[in-house]
Predict the structure.
Amino acid sequence: MMRTTLILCGILFLAPFHVIAQKFDGLAETPPMGWNSWNEFACDVDEDLIKATADAMVESGMKDAGYEYVNIDDCWHGERDENGFIQVDPEKFPSGMKALADYVHSKGLKLGIYSDAGWETCAGYPGSRGYEFQDAQQYAAWGIDYLKYDWCNTEGLAAEGAYMTMRDALAKAGRPILFSMCEWGTDAPWEWAQDVGHAWRISGDIYPCFDCEYRHEGGWSSWGVTKIIDMRADQEIRQYAGPGHWNDYDMMEVGNGMTIGEDRAHFGMWAMLASPLIAGNDLRNMNTQTLDILTNEEVIAVNQDAEGVEAWKYQVYDSTGVWVKPLADGDLAVAFLNRSREDHTINFTWTNHVFNDPHFNYSYNFKNSEYEIKDLWTAKKMGTTSKPMKFTVPGHDLKIYRLSGK
Ligand code: GLA
């Protein structure tokens, strides 16, 4: 009796202190869409840029197309105050972060911010190590909606624990903040982060080229589009992604110097891979071709499809890979990615093919079922899968088709 009472007292005593934190549900049922400052502006961020970007997101039609988050990357930080609360750089953000969040919210958009699990961010600003709960509290008080959490200067830390700490801190702060993990795939987050973050980066940083590796001084590299697509092929990471927890192939470089075909291939593949669609160009100054790619409704619908399944690579013909993405209601998207510089004409006899998903139970047998085919760049109907389809994929470009059951 005495023992039971003691145990009960122990449980009662401990119970209020034992909080089981969870990430916020329902924030990323489809891949997040928005914009981030880093790819185009690096450390050159301030409140005017963020406000003008929010304005442009609305005026350009990007908001209507589904883009929602306006995300400030590294270099917004000032010092911590005497109580340890992080402050903005008063010169770059003279009105303060709360006022900026109010502005972005008044446009019907959401505001994202950046921090780092280590002692310093990648650009050398204060990291969240040791201040996780205070930082989360501060972000919540400011009205932040999205946190990108980086992995520089984390020597000696274990990724899973460090990211769980910030997840718990966000939960404690109480404001639903989308948690975007940026540890570059170093510790295979797809294997453990489903209940930790809403998306996790799978690669080092992207570079605005189709297939190059850009070597920085100091021995690290940034990666072209196809390098990132291929980076985790052996780990078969698509099996770990789904509604609420996505593989993040990095912020996009559409409009940042590649050819139109390369931008199309990049955007189309990010859609096929169910990656977050975070634009990385200057929204205040983009040409119609860039805007047309970024706002292609039907390609976005492939990315945002409720089934939440990433594409798999079915086959490669010469230099052209065929990718298949199962969609809701039995539809599917099929993309042909031409990696060579030469145009590639393909005569695709659908009825010779059966697409069997290597990880899930999707199977498409074109002998048994007929589908209508639509080219998502041209919006042209291409007939049905009952007949061979002849088409050309230009060099460094991508064709993407939606197939709908008849
Ligand atoms: C890392 C990240 C980038 C960017 C920079 C900022 O390299 O991977 O996406 O956030 O830090 O310093």
User: Anything to note?
Assistant: Residues 159-173 form the longest helix (15 residues). The pocket of alpha-D-galactopyranose is lined by residues 38, 73-74, 121-123, 150, 182, 205 (CB under 6 Å).
